[in-house]
Amino acid sequence: MSETSFQPSASDFVALCELVDRGAVDTVMLAVPDMQGRLKGKRIDAHHFVDGVAFGGSDMCAYVLATDVDNRALDGFTLSCADTGYGDVSLLPDPGAVYQLAWMRRTALVFADAIGHDGGPVSVAPRQILQRQLARLTARGITAQVGLETEFVLSHTDAANPHHPTRRPVSDRNLDYALDHPQVLTRFFEDLQECLAGMGRPVEAIKTEGAAGQVEVTFPHGKPLRAADIHLLFQHAARTIAEQAGLVANFMAAPATGIGSSCHIHLSLLDRDRVPLFAETEGRTPDAARYAVGGLLDILPHLGLLYAPTVNSYKRYVPGTFAPTTFTWGRDNRTCAIRVVGRGDNLHLENRLPGADTNPYLALASTLAAVLAGLDHKSEPPKPYIGSAFDDPEAPPVPGSLQEALDALQGCPLPAQDLLTADVASHYKNAARHELAVHRTTVTDLDLRRGLATP
Q: Strand pairing of 329-331 and 338-341?
């Protein structure tokens, strides 16, 4: 892998051309993140990509950005519906987001941005929503650095239904921070680390977590857009490597009752001179960090649709699962929604609200929009929480359901032009309503179990 891999840079297309000329890459996957944070797009002959697509672009049906998890063409979306004929959007490759995939033979992946018929970016596309917040930061002379750490559960496959996890995880007990793992886990870790390093994006750390079969992967701090791109590539790699090993990587927020898998966002900000805005002075939390926390606590209660997008997302917010249940903050306090971590120049904020099922572009966009609101309005947070914030009846509760999150969006104090423009709000509210409708009419195993127990 090391002979043909390359580090992403501004001249990625030049490096890609060299790999294609050498025969090291014969296929390019042109990819766009959908609403669920999945990679969607096309496999393109590498020579065709270099000769025409790299700078001329391609296209895809716009409905890809307006579907549910089952890829159904749904009504109510302005971007794509029967009334508009389910037309196309253009795909503009990002020359700074080219990756050779070490887990797929002779294949590279290039991220693209969706472009509408007016020649501008599609405003409801997750990648564009994040880029809009990054542009707002840049206009203020601020640069964000983020690190994502995400959890998932590895389970053995069911031979009769290989695409769904069984209830038999690869380990049968709590292996949190363990260094003696079952052989199947060790091999998975080795393959995952090798593949991500071969792509030029090595992990910072991998550890087993508290639930049976649960794994946590941490990535180094970096630029938010690249962090989100790498997160999707990591999930693609984890699923592919797991399948090759007869396993399933489960990225549900609540993969089983009483178990939660997270996707925590670690955030720091730098000014124009690359000076950390959150750096402590004589042990004092700086104003910028306090205002950022204040903005997060003011705004995130209204943006659950963006960082917790499914019905299952809200089954993670249970006391005792290390998932927050109240909108609180504290110094190195894992029971709070916002945790202040580190010392000195390394002080940073951890948003513990997103689960493993989050779309990283939308979770990062909502986090940055809330932080900017806090900085702009000098939002003072309440006193930091000491002790367990799980059961405090006085603390604002995290929404208990997707319906509550949908209702909470109505009262968002964030000006519409800052994040949820009318088209973005309409798009994601419609997605939430469709998600709720499916669950409202679907009979589950719990329905059957409890129904059959009734005389």
A: parallel
171 and 227 inside one domain? yes
Residue 192 is assigned to a structural domain of this protein: yes
Distance separating alpha carbons of residues 349 and 354, to the nearest angstrom: 14
Half-sphere exposure at residue 185, Cβ-oriented, CA atoms within 13 angstroms: 23
| Alpha helices per DSSP H over 165-262 | 183-198, 224-244
- CA-wise closest residue to 17 among 63, 43, 65, 54: 54
Check whether residue 338 and residue 380 sit in a common domain. Answer: yes
Nearest to 37 by CA among 104, 111, 90: 111
Please indicate, yes or no, if residue 280 is contained in any of the structural domains: yes
Q: Single out the residue in 95, 122, 149 at which a domain terminates.
A: 122
Burial 81-120 (b: 16+ CB within 10 A, else e): beeeeeebbbbbbbbbbbbbbbbeeebbbbbbbbbbeeee
**Residue 289: alpha-carbon gap to chain centroid:** 23
Provide the 10 A C-beta neighbour count for residue 360.
28
Q: How many CB atoms lie within 10 A of CB 370?
A: 29
Q: Considering the entire predicted model, what is its pTM?
A: 0.93
138, 244 contact by CB (below 8 A) = no
Provide block-wise average pLDDT over 10 residues at a time, the chain (455 residues): 37 84 94 95 94 90 89 83 80 92 94 91 94 95 96 84 68 84 90 90 90 92 95 95 92 91 96 93 87 96 95 92 93 94 92 97 96 95 91 89 94 76 89 92 86 77
Cβ proximity of 418 and 303 under 8 Å = no
Of 389, 376, 372, the residue nearest 331 (C-alpha): 389
Rounded CA separation 143/453 (Å): 57
